[in-house]
Amino acid sequence: MHSYSVAAAVVLFLPTACFSQLPSFRCDSSKSALEDCTFLTQFETVRDQIFTSQRSSFDRSLLLAESSESTTDTYNDPASGRTPAASVSPQEEGFHWRRALTESFTFLVIEQVYVVRTDFTWVVSENGIPFNHYWRDYKQSLSSWNNAGWGAGEDPLYNYVGHPIQGALTSFIEIQNDPKSENLEYSNTKAYWRSRLKATIWNTVYSTQWSMGPLSEMTVEKYGTKDRAPTNANGSYPCNTNTCYSGVGKVNIVMTPVGGFGWMLAEDVLDKEIAERVEDHTQNRLLIDTVRTALNPIRGGANILHGKRVWYRARDDHEMRLLSQQETAVSTSEIPKPVPNHGDVFFGYSHLGASNCEEPYAVPYTVAPGAAIVCDPLSAKASNLGGWNVAVEKKYLRYFGTVADFSRQCGGAKQSNFLFGVRGGASIGRFRPFAQGLFGAVHGREFGSAASGSVTSFAEDLGVGVDSRLMRLLSWRVQVDELKTGLSDFQRYNVRVSSGLAIRF
Q1: What is the rounded distance in angstroms from the CA atom of residue 468 to the CA atom of residue 37?
Q2: Residue 85: is its pLDDT beyond 80?
């Protein structure tokens, strides 16, 4: 079964990879002190850069040595050369279940956005309704998996590279939400191996749900059901050989946790043996951050979900806290938490472009799958429409928010869109680029037609945009989306362009 963790992140969130994150534009450009702004996005990161850029290799070693002498935490590794210790013992702080589940669910949505895009036909194969005959299809999928062999008939790249990447990222999600694990670096100690074992257990639970759980590829994309015909070894339909594949197999249940553990361990080793040595020999932040990002790309993805920069390391916070306690006696409780409590409302004009129709996967094919075909009468009329767009976003992580998007366009026909999903974005100066993935329904109707001239179908929306700040709470938004809709035997694409005012709250 497909796992497109990296591809999904590139498709949706490359424009919002959170480089050069600046304070939220709830804080204007006045000369007031940064400390007075209560809407800063992650103030401690700003301080982290200030302290990090000022310290030398000697300073860092001295701080860490002092920390090693003052701490009594038994799980830290004295031989690691970096003994992370907090002013409050992490053993007194429990695992952050809510945050870890939220980050894991956000990652699940990102993955499903991409997979639904590629398997749209199967999502709507039951009369155009997702999850139609849910339990019947789920039982068929589980039966197919139970009788399947090792392989799933997929490209080995998915099974032996894609799924280990998925496993590594979910492992890092567990690590960064466990106070006992987040500061541990690669070392041959019981504490380190215990922490990575717990991360692998989290990875195993996530990957099992992705492969065969209630919101898995089985239930969303209908792998292993009678509704989704088996394929040949090369992925073509229908199967006309003795060996057919249903898209389910044992390979991913094993490769995701095992390969994910290996990938996670490799990034830990590279960070310890190369990245830290670079840090000890230079104060060039660009070089340090580049090396960190290049050697730990999957950890970088988990960092974004956690509200941190791609190149963030837990040791940065530890060293910054030591410096702040020595210089200003600032306690860790005074550092603002990274969970935002704001959002925005968008009001704008929306234009729906020309309809582009294609033939979905069908058995037998009427034309080559994916080939352009003439649109049906309703789709042909649902082109070049104009109307309004209203959207509400509420942030729940530093870089992510939930979105409800409603729009209506009129012209040769009337189309109403009801969409819900996730948006990722980061403020860069006066601008906030973002990307979003939404699911929902589209209702189209010809003007002056009877009820038979209307249709309601499942829809998916992928879009990018940018907010340009006009004043403290007011921005101008320009957004471009590709809206995909249709039934099991017909699909339609429209480009939607929206522009208007976004009001922060």
Answers
A1: 20
A2: no
